[in-house]
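Usage

Read records sequentially. Each one opens with the input sequence:
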Amino acid sequence: MIGPLPVIFAAEALALGYLLGSIPFGLFFAFASGAGDVRKIGSGNIGATNVLRTGKKWPAAATLLFDGLKGAVAVLLAWFYLPPGSEIFAALGAILGHVFPVWLGFRGGKGVATFLGVAIALYWPAGLAVAATWLGAALVWRISSLSALIAIALSPVYFLLLGHGEYAPLALALAALIFFMHRENIRRLRRGEEPRIGSKSAKTS
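and closes with the structure output:
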């Protein structure tokens, strides 16, 4: 059970998470691969799925890995160096930093990979359940956004069922934010127009 956390520690954890979460790895790896500015490709966001639309696999894989790692590192640093409960604010900060990075005019990614890193760091069985759900849905439908939305929607349930219900409200709040960030994807899903994994698009939505 997590008790009340002093405001100063909550603020420190939130700031730590935000700074780590706001590192735009997708932008860096896309430029490093010669693909140019990923914000001018596909959906225009800096996440791994959009980096993959450049046609280059290694920067997409690197983006997925490092976007997840920055969320996990934020949680783990708060866990080891700040009082119990700080990891919740670090997790929240990491997602907010990724989605709304100050360095990019508050236009970042949609938070899926960072959420996965956060979930694994908070309680790895729940995080792996989220990852397995995403993978299973991706194998069935081959639509990244749909797979992510299904997996993240189930994350509060996984935390509850696996005995860490203290993280379920956080997972629910982050799921709501990520669903909001996917509002255009949801519209395209309803119209049957959402691109499948690995497809290229030169048009910015």
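Summary fields computed downstream for this record:
- Residues 7-191 form one domain.
- The chain has ten helices and no strands.
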